[in-house]
Amino acid sequence: MPEYLISFNDEWVPEHTEEQIGTKSAAVRPVIDEMIAEGVLIFSNGGLDRSTVVCSAESGEGGPIVTDGPYVETKEHLGGFAVVDVPDDDTARYWAGRLATALEWPQEVHRFRGPGRGRY
């Protein structure tokens, strides 16, 4: 089955208090539990933002160059994601819709390329 990345950009999410984040976490938990029960969830994490960036790595003359923080200055940061293994685009859309509804912020869906088309 194809694998999909369902993600949201941290900039799409308004500022939340810790209490509001707790409420969102409780609201999305049943959806995550259903994804687990259906056997479609590979991995999920919603705790990313600009404060979680550890470093950036790029190729340099003589080897890698590793620097603290993000590579480029940008407003856009991955905020969270779920990787799912589902049969088709429609099913990926279904789960993205469920997550968007529970969290009340947009989700984006990407299909990973299949074997032989860029997958390592």
From TrEMBL:
The region annotated as signal peptide is none
Instruction: Kindly give the InterPro entries that the UniProt entry links to this protein.
Output: Dimeric_a/b-barrel, YCII
Residue ranges occupied by any YCII-related domain in the UniProt entry: 25-98
Database matches in Pfam families: YCII
Entry similarity comment: Belongs to the YciI family.
State the name under which the record lists this protein.
YCII-related domain-containing protein
Taxonomic source organism = Actinoplanes italicus
